[in-house]
Please model this.
Amino acid sequence: MSSIKVKPIKDLWAEFEVPGDKSISHRAAILAGLSNGPCQIDNYLPSEDCICTLNAMSNLGVDYEVLEAMEGFGPTSLIIRGKKMDLSKPEEEVDCGNSGTGMRLLAGLLAAQPFESVLTGDASLCSRPMGRIMKPLAEMGASIEALGEKPGCAPLRITGGKLKEMTYEMPVASAQVKSAILLAGLFTEGKTTVVQPSETRDHTERMLAYFQVRSVRDGNHISVYGGQMPESRDFRIPGDISSAAFWIVAAACLPGAHLLIKNVGLNPTRTALLDVLIRMGAQIKDVVLSEEYGEPYGNIEITGKSLHGTEIKPEEVPNLIDEVPILAVAGALAQGKMSIRNAKELRVKESDRISTVADNLRAMGAEVEEYEDGMEISGGKPLHGQVLDSFGDHRIAMAFAIAGLHAKGETEITNTDCINTSYPGFSKHLEAIKAGKSPK
Ligand SMILES: O=C(O)C1=C[C@@H](OP(=O)(O)O)[C@@H](O)[C@H](O)C1
Ligand SMILES: C=C(OP(=O)(O)O)C(=O)O
Model:
């Protein structure tokens, strides 16, 4: 089991790109695999989560050819040969690893196939709630049985078949649930509508449009028309702003630091982190360079300042949900209070991120009050180095590696293999930053 050791840095001056976006990579593997021909996908994220989705599509009969790979990880550039919506029964259980996105999106796809399949994953994934996709997919006509030890949890046995269209009001603001239903809706004969309680990331809608599938949005009502086949097209995945977030915070709270993150996704449903940091006094400039593939991407430039606390607004939460651990670290380093509420969803991520963030921040000397749906951090107390567990959660591991760059003494994060689920190469990038260089 690997670990990461960090000491405080005095300066940060770097320009680089982070690997491809995780959410968009999952969707590219699925939609290209359903399309009517070959699609070249560049800057695919070769993380364990996205490799699981690629393997899942391959188990469903989709061929792919690797053009380029990241050493020790997996493909970054590949040709996926679309199976024209005609998938085959997998010979074995489909393993989604640690990935909630992979499992929930694939469940939507498998619910519409005329065969039985089983979706499984690691211990963390098999303890996360799947009722949220089982219910709507069952209403569309699929039969899904939760075989896990915990009620409503994976493994999931899915007996798919002909689905009927429907309108579904989601009780939680979840892009994974929305996407599962839209993917299932592709295989119906009518119009399937998802009503989201508030804005959630819209990568599925954008990619459907890019692959020339007709979908419509009317406020928070998103509809897809069944019976359409995605048109094969090449796609380039922008850098992952959720990965960039670690470096953005590392630089934003270090007076005098300068950081340029290049070619990173700037989809407005993912950039709430920047708004919060700007309210905290950060100096951040983001510039959209292109929207060529249906997703805006560009550069983010950060100049380090002293930060002060803020309140994260309830409506911002879905658009920064994966950035809460690193924003909480920013809150602990800032002067004054930072409050995060309306974030109960954090309790059902790879770890219970309210308690794992609070435990680790307190161990470093911060004052944190925990609530059922969030936390309040009284910032400004100096953080001190500690041996901290990642709890097997990639975002916790990376957030506290960054905290260590701003703490007194040495910080060690144990159990850091999980970082490979979303950010292959993080440790290499961290080594470069520690050495005062730009990561390659
Ligand atoms: O659709 C997606 O790609 C994701 C949606 C979010 O989850 P929810 O849909 O559960 O909010 C997010 O936390 C996850 O990392 C990726
Ligand atoms: C919650 C996350 O991912 P997933 O739900 O796909 O496991 C994440 O990447 O922080």
